[in-house]
Structure formats: C-alpha cells, structure tokens
Amino acid sequence: MSARPASIPWPAVLRRLVVAVASLALVAVLVFLTFEWLADPAALRLGRGASPEARESLRVAMGLDRSFGTRLLEHVARAITFDFGASQARGAPAGPLMLQALGPTLAYALPGWLLGTAAAVNGGLAAARRRAVDRALSGLSTAVLSTSSVIVVVLAQHVLAHRLGWFPVLGWPLAGADKSPLAYVMLPALVWALLQWGPDVRHYRAVFERELAAPHLDGLRARGVPERRIAGHVLRAAVGPVVARIGQRISHVVVGSVVIEELFNIPGLGALLVAAIHEADAALVQAIAVATAAVTIAGQALCDAVVWWIDPRVRRRDVN
Amino acid sequence: MRLMLGGRLALLGLGGFAVLASGAAAGLWAQAWDVPVGRPYMSPGTAAWLGTDALGYDLFAQVVQGARVSLVAGVGGAAGAVAVGGLLGAWAGLRGGWTDRLLSGATDAFAAVPPVVALLAMALALGPGVATVVVAIAVTQWTGVFRAARAEGQRLRVADYYRAAEAMGAGALHQIGWHVVPALRPVLLSALVVLFAHAVKVEALLAYLGASAPELPSWGKLLARSGSELARGVWWPTVAASAPLALLVLCAQVLADSSARRPE
Question: Taking every annotated instance into account, which residue ranges of this chain make up the domain ABC transporter type 1 GsiC-like N-terminal (chain A) (predicted)?
Fold first, then answer.
C-alpha cells in the first residue's frame, strides 16, 4: 500500500452507478421482449390447447390489450425497483419465493466456489511454473471441459454416493434427515468445485504464465530472492485478472447449477428456475433474471473496487 | 491453418461425427431408432450393439441419430454467436465513440444475465425444438465474441496500414475485404471452435431439461433417463449417451487448443 491513501474517484463511481441502473433497465427490457414479444404470455399460461376466446379474455384480464409502450415502461419501472409481482403458478410474490430458494443454493455453491477457486489458482500457478505439472493438469482440465456437467453429476452421484456410500445419494436437511446437514452439502460442493476448476485452471495458468515472464522477477531472482517470495510477487501482480475471474463466477454461484440441483434434489434457485420454466411462470423467471443480473453487476463493481484497492497500478491508471 | 498431430486427429474425429450424422439424416443407416427391436434393457450384444433402453429401442441407432441434433446445435449456435458478436464487435471497435460506448454498454448488460437463465427463458418463450436451441445458444454466447472482435477492431482502427488506406480514399468494402476480415479471421475462427464445444454441451443440457428437439433422439435426453437406470445396474444407456458426447466435445476442445497454440 502506498503511504498516501488514494482518494476515491467519485466521478467514476457515479458513472458506474448510472451505468448499473441503465444495465438493469436494459435487462428488464430484454426480459420483457422475451416474454411479451417473442411469446404470448396468455398462450404460455393456458397451454397449447386453449381456445382463442379464452386466450383473448385472459389477455384482457392480464392487461395485455394495452399499448406496447405503456406495458414496456411499466414493466421496466417495476423491475428496476425489484417489484416482480406474484408468481402465476404459485400465487405467492415472486421475490420472497426466490430468496427462499437462494439459501440451499448458496449452501453448496459458495463452498464449492471457494474450493474450486483455491484449487484453480494453486493449480494454475503450479502449472505455469513446472512443465510436468502443466501436462498433468491441462490433461485433467481438458477431460473436465469435455465432459458435460450432466455426465459429471450422474457419475459422481453413482460412484461416490451410490456405490461407495461416502455421501448421501440425495436429499436436503429440511426433509427430516438423519445425517448432519454438512453431509448433504459436501458432494454437491465437490462436484461444483470440479466443474468450475476445469475452465478456471486454464485461465489462471495463462495469467500466471504472463506474470512469471515479467522482467522485474528476473531482477528479484538476480538478487537472490527465494522462489517462495517471488510467488508472492506474482500473486500480487496477478490480482487484477484473478479477481475479475472470481467476479465472473459470482453470477454462477447465485443461480446455482441446474443439473446439480435436479439430480441431488436440492430445493435451490436452479431447481426453482427449471420448475418456473416448466410451469411457464413468467413472473418468477423475470424475478430470477433481474435479481441475478443485479447481483452480477454489483459483484463486478465490488471486484473492480477490490482491484483498485489492492493494485496501485490501477489507481495510477498505468493499466486499465 | 497448420495444426499439430492432436489438432489433425481432432479434425478427423469431427469429420467422422459429421459423416455419421449426415448419413443418419439422409436415411442411410440407424433408421430403426423409433421402433422396438427387442426386450427392454437388453445388455449390449450382437442383437443390439449398445443394448436397448426401457422400451426396447435400439440404443446404437438412437446414439447415431442423436449426433444430428448435437452437430446442428453446435454448428448453428456457434455460427450464430460468432456472426452476431463478430459483426457488432467489429463495428463497435472500428467506429469508436458513442457507437462503441452504446454497444459495449448493451453487451455488458446482456452479459449480466446468467446464461442459464437466458437459455431457459428463451426455451420457454420459443417452445422446444432444434431452432430454439440454436437461437438460445447464439443469443447467450455472442458477448464473448463481441469483446474479442471489438478489441481487434480497436487495434485495427489505429493501425498504420488501415489509416493509410483510409487516407488514400479506400471505400468501406475494400477496407472490409482487405483489412477487417483478415484481421478478424483468427479471432473468429478460434471463437467458432470454442463455442462449438460449448454449444454441444449446452444442447445436451437443454435436452436433459426437455427443451431440445422433441421429435429426435438426443444424447442429453438419453442422459436424463440414465441416472435412475444406473442406480438399478443398467449401465449401458449412460455409457451410450455420455461416450459420444464427451468424445465430440473433446475433439472440438483439442482442435480449439491446438489452433490457439499455433505459431504466430
């Protein structure tokens, strides 16, 4: 850290806020176009066999006979204030339904995310430094990347839970289980970590390879600085790209994995999303889309702030 | 494009899949996929090479037919995403100014929606089908291509040869044909292969969730049933569906890696 604390660049912060609100409005517009322009909400709700009269009367009841512009403005205004209306299939407000499902998702996705990130950063650093490690890890990463998440989850569940019995096959603590909640979270978290590790380790390897080639490290080595401390320098210089990648993953953590939740029977956000799709519940899908977009934008801003705080080059605008 | 041995093998593998799929589509082989050929859950043998499923349908024929959907979704989705992202990205990068700011802002907002949410919302709005899968993949995957193409366009905009041609009065068509397309080609080609691998996986996921082609067999659909069958000791549907899926994506992945690593 520099001795003089840098002042926060308020104009840039203000600009980011304006862009964030605009982005959220744009997301709401996209959702609106998907559900009210690409598809007819009344037809979605009634299914394929509905008569044109029934569809028309539902359109009037849902207020779909008003002008396109009015509905668009109303929709966007409501969405950016996080008022999503009631879920059509469940009758309850969509917002609380979504928050309720967020708990189980975070319970396995957050540990999986931490584990996957730690393993990928360490693996990337090791691979960038040693050729043998690089061969092994990039082979493993290619294998993970080539395997669809469906296969990974099916196989992990079958081998580790079914055959070996190391973990409960499926279920969730709320369902009156005999094992500790931790047991149920462990295997989904491990699978999550593996799925995330596959692409991430390649990314981090590329980042560290670039940083390890930096000339200032030769200077340090020439002065006899031990490799262990050089790794510290590399890590600090690589903070920007690493944190950016971690930030990208935040949106994934919030939605969870649809496949993991389906196969392990976890009542999380991914499972709720799939259910909402099957029930053609537009309000719930909208709520999930806008809320996760908001979290993504906030997470991105947080990561930028962290990089700005840690990396003096960013503060001085040496690198962007 | 010069490729190393792995890349050539991968290309050969992809070609094999293409032959398999087009033959199945043309009606040359694997036609007995929607009629029972034996008892339910026959294990692999001479009667049915990969065994039969819960209804006694031949799994081998289903797997070969499944290659059709996977390849169409992969190629179509990747091509759509590269076309949209490449065009918008090159335009934003070359024009700069407000065009760039607006397009980049819109792309960031687009990218803020988690892909799974966008995919499933598109699937709901458009109804199940191969076209839905292609559109959904293109719509959700173009943002990465946009960024790469935009960066390349920005580099080109300040390049001496580009500005010299501009100063000499080169028209838009000349610039596009002589400078823009050649500059963007490596970026877009590698994006195409990477997105193909990704799109094949996305198709499997959508098929698994019941949003892909309802009238054709697909690997994702086979996988959706295989989890519970595996628990009962019926392992061959899982293998039949996952082996070709993994092999196809592996080919694309290896090709992507070896084309990215080629000497400058």
Answer: 13-78
